[in-house]
Amino acid sequence: MINSIIIEDEDIAAIKLQKMIQELDSEIYITKILSSVKESVAYLKKHKPDLIFLDINLSDDNSFEIFNSVTNIKSKIIFTTAYSEYAIKAFELNSIDYLLKPIAKKDLQRSLKKIKQFNEESVPNYNNILNNKKELYKKRFLIKQNNNLISVSVEEIAYFYSEDKLTFIKLKNNKKLPLDESLRKLEEVLDPSKFYRINRKYIINITSIVKMYYSSKSRIILHLNPSVEEQQVTVAIEKVGKFKNWLVI
Questions:
Q1: Most buried in the list 15, 104, 127, 167, measured by CB within 10 Å?
Q2: pTM for the full predicted model
Q3: Topology annotation, domain 140-247
Q4: Judging by DSSP bridges, how do beta strands 209-216 and 202-205 pair with one another?
Q5: How far is it, in rounded angstroms, from Cα 160 to Cα 157?
Q6: Res. 116 pLDDT band, cuts 50 70 90
Q7: pLDDT at 136 over 80
């Protein structure tokens, strides 16, 4: 019996994955479904599953944060992702398998066969995954504006934000550009040492922060440059701790 867990923040996706696993391989037993980094870290400090099906973007953070908190993970891991163009390259370099959402049964079957070929000695070093991934972060964006194409370096970007269900880039020169990517997708391709999603609306470059202060015991206010219409933005309460850690990386 292969004791396994699923780490996935979308309930429907987790249940569907569990059902497909049970249909394809009766030796794989799902002992737990977890939905956040915090929950997963607490579980993995006490349990050592043989196999983990790991979503990349979770409800409270990027799942790579799990490896920063639990350093002795020996489980075999099948990554799952909806946005694969950068993550997959990093995983392939380390012989990690992945499933691209929406997950097809034939792809899951391939992964299950591949993961059984690993023995304990061949479990990849997940710290190496983090190191290799740093080289694959997005460096430029190609923006279509009317009939024009504009190439923008990430070094020119102050922050990303959503407005009326659309995503925009605010450049350091105060220019605003539309972007056909969601903030959720951007979280996967931006260097987390430089960019951080402070709330549902903003992903900011650390260099864009002009001023920050507590407005209450648990609320941090930021002033950004270029300024935003509301003049200040608030770090989501559930992100305050990780935001402060990010500032001193």
A1: 167
A2: 0.66
A3: OB fold (Dihydrolipoamide Acetyltransferase, E2P) (2.40.50)
A4: unpaired
A5: 8
A6: confident
A7: no
